[in-house]
Amino acid sequence: MEVRIGNEMAEVELLSKEDNKVSISINGTVYDVDIVMAENGLCSIITKDGKSYNAEIRRPDKGNEYTVNVLFDSYQVEMIDLQTKYLRNRKNSDGGVAQDRIFSPMPGKIVKILVEKGDKVEAGKPVIIVEAMKMQSEYKVKNDCIIKDILVSEGTTIRGDETLISLEPLA
Amino acid sequence: MEVRIGNEMAEVELLSKEDNKVSISINGTVYDVDIVMAENGLCSIITKDGKSYNAEIRRPDKGNEYTVNVLFDSYQVEMIDLQTKYLRNRKNSDGGVAQDRIFSPMPGKIVKILVEKGDKVEAGKPVIIVEAMKMQSEYKVKNDCIIKDILVSEGTTIRGDETLISLEPLA
Amino acid sequence: MIKKILVANRGEIAIRVMRSCQEMGIKALAVYSEVDRTSRHVFYADEACCIGGAAAKDSYLNIDKIIDVAKRFNVDAIHPGYGFLSENADFAKRCKDEGIIFIGAPEHAIRKMGDKIAARQMMIDAGVPVVPGTQEGIDSVEDAVKIAKGIGLPVMFKASAGGGGKGIRLVYDEKDIENSFLTSKSEAISSFGNGTVYVEKYIESPHHIEFQILGDQFGNVVHLCERECSVQRRHQKVLEESPSPLMTPELREEMGKKAVAAAKAVNYEGAGTIEFLVDDNLNYYFLEMNTRLQVEHPITEEVVGVDLVKEQINIANGLPLRFKQEDIHQRGHSIECRICAEDAENNFTPAPGIIKQITEPLGMGVRLDSFVYDGYEIPMYYDSMIGKLIVWAVNRKYAIERMRRVLYEYKITGVKTNISYLRKIIDVPEFVNGKYNTNFLEVNKSYLTEDKKVNDNSESESESENIAIIAAYIDYIVNLEENAPKTADNRPISKWREFGKRSGMIRI
Amino acid sequence: MIKKILVANRGEIAIRVMRSCQEMGIKALAVYSEVDRTSRHVFYADEACCIGGAAAKDSYLNIDKIIDVAKRFNVDAIHPGYGFLSENADFAKRCKDEGIIFIGAPEHAIRKMGDKIAARQMMIDAGVPVVPGTQEGIDSVEDAVKIAKGIGLPVMFKASAGGGGKGIRLVYDEKDIENSFLTSKSEAISSFGNGTVYVEKYIESPHHIEFQILGDQFGNVVHLCERECSVQRRHQKVLEESPSPLMTPELREEMGKKAVAAAKAVNYEGAGTIEFLVDDNLNYYFLEMNTRLQVEHPITEEVVGVDLVKEQINIANGLPLRFKQEDIHQRGHSIECRICAEDAENNFTPAPGIIKQITEPLGMGVRLDSFVYDGYEIPMYYDSMIGKLIVWAVNRKYAIERMRRVLYEYKITGVKTNISYLRKIIDVPEFVNGKYNTNFLEVNKSYLTEDKKVNDNSESESESENIAIIAAYIDYIVNLEENAPKTADNRPISKWREFGKRSGMIRI
User: Fold this and answer.
1) For the whole model, what pTM was predicted?
2) Which residues neighbour C256 within 8 Å (Cβ) at sequence distance 6 or greater?
3) Nearest CA of chain C to the CA of B168: how many Å?
4) Mean pLDDT, chain D, as a whole number?
5) Is-contact C39 C11, C-beta < 8 A?
6) Taking CB atoms and an 8 Å limit, are D354 and C491 in contact across chains?
7) How many domains does chain D divide into?
8) Least buried of A167, D83, D110, D383, by fewest C-beta within 10 Å?
9) So what's the pLDDT on residue D454?
10) D406 belongs to a structural domain
11) How far is CA A78 from CA A40, B3, C356, C471, in A?
12) Which chains touch D (3 or more CB pairs under 8 A)?
């Protein structure tokens, strides 16, 4: 199976499994580990040479993208199953991975909207300001584009990952 | 709905519900409370006069019997639904709630079995010894009975709540 | 004697106060905003009452509502915590008028210390060094130039009614004096409706050192030694320690005396903090007085062994101080890290959200003052601090080693936190050597925020990555398996149990 | 210098040791039995290795296997914790022979202190008071009667090689002397293969007070003051405190000196404990020496501010002690409660099982040394202690208040625990007044185990019952509802969120 970690891809395969002992190939290298995992996402992995690792996984709310913490680092790990591949291919044929919306990764409140529907906006221009926990964040467009729709208004409270403004990229 | 707490029965009814505010009748007395509950069983209840209570519930693995901790006390609370009622009625017609098995409430190891299948045993006689955490516990029969079957052998490791010996009560 | 206290705050400080109430057998009443129903301070309290909407002005700053609830629930006293109403003189007065004990500074002390020019003058009268500058407002551009040159550049113009950085102008160059004075004045008018501006010498790269004081109703005041608060990002404290690595016993005694003098000058009662700027030559200057409990009060509690909230309540009860100055001794070393839900690698953007899982650090010398729990949704309306991680050890070296250990043990999933950033701070040589001032975080910014691994003499980058892949991948295939035949076993560890029981190749 | 340590233990003490390793930058290797794969000490370690089956003799007592793993993983030292191999002289010797540092007492000290008659003689030679009695084995019934009458009844006959209560007979009446001597002797032969029996005066209702000592490789020995361990159930300590409420400064100095003399008499190195019996007139008698770290060591750490495991490692590294006797000072008061998975209302039956949910007590003056976590299955093979809850406060009164508070905060669901029993102990007047001896729990048995509510000036019985009913009932009907239409929202708090969003009457 293909797995994406950060911006890199890896080919991962389960070779064998006996109780908690699994043998996994990552890009051709074989890892023999003893792994246990609790329902809440705590995971203990002991390698063949006896190293004891812990990982805390956050399962995806939707899709196949895990957040995995190991020591002080946090990784985004996505399982590329058939559906993911299909969606990804469709997107590619649709015109690459161009930015098609403005969203805030966290919940907050819309402080100011700097554009109007139909505006032509240059790459790098801020279009909306969101406030959370007494701090304001500006969101900018990455490419030249047209404001297709504005889905929120000033003062609105938003959830994380909600689409605020949809964009029509200019080719 | 009928609810059993410890050895007592209560008639409980939901009168109304608005968001987290519920009105419940227990044996005819109305309680208006604000209640929230986390997936892990932590429960916060604020009464109408502003008292803040916490309860930790343990959901039943099977059946409808909850364990609920409030402050330093622990309660067994059972919801008597139709199925429970049916089972209970059947049991009653079957000869009351006479003891029909010996079980250990916790996991352990069988140290010694003091009876054999077919033995006639007097009330109060110990029949089996179970060890857990370096401590041994003796289990006794409550009434005169015949040993119907012995389901474990010495040295066996047992789970909690497993039937060890089945009994045939002597009328 | 006080039998019931309304805690007019939320989050960790509300619980901090309630813990002392619980120990003293005093009932605690929590107040909460509509979005805070699931905050642990509501669970912790004996009684709880909702006081309004999420916005602070509708709830935690709503004086009428809080007084109304206090009377309805028949409380004897109100503890304001820090922030919100804790330094609000009107609220202190209102409590008094309503016959409710305000467990904080007396109204007159809050007012006097709130006016910066008046406070400066009072400190000078009490023999407490202040940053060289004027004791009164500057009237004209001519005076501004003359006085600034007299003090010697660089200087700062400041608004007397100021706060939050508004009305402050820093001048390095003579030609900028006029312009800076005028902008400071106009900003003061627009921000505070009061154009009074004064000038102070600008202390470059100072240390921020503060003294904890306690005063009772009989005029006794003692200090509980110092806290070093120079690890700041944009004037926000990030990490504090006590004792200060800069301090000498002689300087501590001297500054302590001045801190006591400062508190006595305003007839102070309760817990308060005298903030000083200290330069590299150990010259120190009064900066301001905080007329409340500070966020960082626990490091003082750890080092001097005094529960400050209990003492606040004792003082409010009219008891004389339990100890004299000579009874106060520092033992060992304490460090506090402020744990925040923020994305340190992304310009410290706040990161509200739902906490999936927490593993709390335990064992010797660890104290965690927090209010979050598994499944708690951190609301977006309040600040991003979710707890304070405090260690104590017998000396500074051991305290640093302990802080490394407990940051390693502290695991939070679901929201981003600054734990990794804090862990990096602990490794910076200036910090380890105790040689840092308020510029410390700025100077080390690139090291601290670049995407570099924490140096814990461990595994390589790629090994961690493989572990992450293995964990996610195994969870994924186990879930695939489990979604097919439903198992009745709902024990929390069912997943690994089930997983362990089966064997052989899994088809994916 | 030691770079890697094998921790030959499990559970809380294994983690306790590893925490100090982590702070000192020393790698920790966990060993575990087959049923302990999910014990937190395995997660906590840098490396981990399974050493055999669940039975202790196959794993934690398996010397060959542990030495084998130690060599394979190239460790410099082994820390045995308490219990298991910690007082095994053969293991200490084996480590030495294999070139591995044993972080415990030297072999000769373990052996000498293991032989009770030899230890008594050694103590007498060192000027340490022992319970009046014989220094050598008693040969005949005639001698037994003569000696017993000489000492004065009541007396105890004890097996020299004894332990665990075997071979001990208490005699109140002259006519029972002969019979008791003979049974003691025959039990000694059958239990230890050694019929040597001696006699001691029986101290009635004594206090059990022990002194912590530390010795380095250069003959320096200091004591770290006392622990009061009289709260015992069937000779098992349940709760300990330091300082002892019985102690006077003079007695502490005197007993401390004797404790140091006792340790020096066996050329002791490392951490050890001298146990004394103390009667109501403050006469004290050497009872035995424990040549290891004790379960209750944390209360000493809290009061004197020393990390005992770190000092053990420093000593093993050949460093001289960091401090002299005059540097050791007690500050404040500490209490430890042993948290056990047992059913206190049902004759303290052990209660292994799966922990559903834990809420850990936090805040000032709290220390939790534990190893369990949400979803952990407590195995039935080892003892029932799942953690130690330790508080520190500035004085005994505050420490008691704090222990009440933290027992209130500590919530464990899924298994039965003794938390409620401990909470009741804290309220017993003899305990509150500090006037208790080893009979304390027995005398108060009926109060402590009868089905009575904890006195926390709270709600009535029936109110708690109603709360329990409401909580279970609402969960039940919400589950009924949720089982109908499946929601995609899997957030941990989805239940109350969903519940909150809907309104109106629910049909049941």
Assistant:
1) 0.90
2) C211, C223, C225, C226, C325
3) 30
4) 90
5) yes
6) yes
7) 5
8) D383
9) 66
10) yes
11) 19, 47, 19, 12
12) A, B, C
For chain B positions 116-155, those within 8 Å of chain D (CB to CB) are: 132-135, 137
Summarised one tens digit per residue, pLDDT across range D246-278 is 999 999 999 999 999 999 999 999 999 999 999
Interatomic CA distance for residues A102 and A111, integer angstroms: 15
Alpha carbons C12 and C221: distance in angstroms, whole number: 28
pLDDT at A160 over 60: yes
- Do C215 and C323 share a structural domain? yes
Which residues of A are less than 8 Å from D73 in CB distance?
50
Chains that touch A (3 or more CB pairs under 8 A): C, D
- Answer whether residue D112 is part of any domain: no
Q: What is the pLDDT of residue D498?
A: 40
Please tell me which residue of chain D has the smallest CA distance to B20.
D500
Gap from D304 CA to chain C (nearest CA, Å): 10
Q: What's the complex ipTM?
A: 0.88
Q: Does B49 touch chain D (CB under 8 A)?
A: no
In this complex, do C504 and A17 lie within 8 Å of one another by their Cβ atoms? yes
Residue C12 Cα distances to A132, C39, C376, D343, D392, angstroms: 19, 9, 14, 34, 20
pLDDT given at position A13: 93
- Segments in C426-460 forming alpha helices (H): 429-433, 440-443, 445-449
Residues D363 and C441: their CA atoms lie apart, in Å, by 28
**B51/C375 touch (CB, cutoff 8 Å), yes or no:** no
- Pairs of CB atoms within 8 A across B/D: 178
Radius of gyration of chain A (CA): 21
Instruction: Please tell me which residue of chain D has the smallest CA distance to C306.
Output: D394
Residue C46: closest CA among chain D residues belongs to which residue?
A: D458
CATH number at residue D311: 3.30.470.20
Which residue, among B19, C352, C347, C346, has the nearest Cα to A158 in the 3D structure?
C352
Of D129, D490, C264, D221, nearest to A58 by C-alpha is: D490
Extents of the domains making up chain A? 2-80, 94-169
| Predicted confidence (pLDDT) at residue D330 exceeds the cutoff of 80 | yes
The minimal CB distance from A52 to the residues D38, D43, D374 is found for D43
Q: Does any CB of chain B come closer than 8 Å to the CB of residue C355? A: no
Residues A149-162, mean pLDDT to the nearest whole number: 87
Q: Which amino acid is at A124?
A: G
- D24 to chain C nearest CA, in Å? 7
Residue C181: give the domain boundaries: 132-201
To 10 degrees, what angle do helices C249-265 and C116-125 make? 120
Give the β-pairing of C77-79 and C101-102. Answer: parallel
Q: Which two tokens stand for residue D261?
A: 């003399």
Provide the residue type at C183 as one letter.
T
Q: Which residue of C has its CA nearest to B38?
A: C375
Does A38 contact D at CB distance below 8 Å? yes
Average pLDDT per run of 10 along chain C, which is 508 residues long? Answer: 98 98 98 95 97 95 98 98 96 98 97 89 95 87 91 89 75 91 88 86 93 98 98 93 97 98 97 96 94 97 98 98 97 98 89 91 97 91 95 97 97 95 96 96 88 58 90 88 48 38 32
D218 to chain B, closest Cα gap in Å: 40
In angstroms, the CA D286 to CA D262 distance is: 9
The answer to whether C30 contacts chain B (CB < 8 Å) is yes
CATH match for A94-169 among 1.20.120.790, 2.40.50.100, 1.10.10.60, 2.30.40.10: 2.40.50.100
Minimal CA separation from D399 to chain B, in Å: 20
Q: What is the pLDDT of residue D482?
A: 62
* Chain D environment of B74 (Cβ under 8 Å): 416
Mind telling me the catalytic residues of D? 292
| Range name among C55-69, D77-91, D195-209 with the lowest pLDDT average | D195-209
Going through C54-98 in order, the beta strands assigned E by DSSP cover 77-79
- Chain B CB within 8 Å of residue D350 CB: yes
**Strand pairing partners for D42?**
none
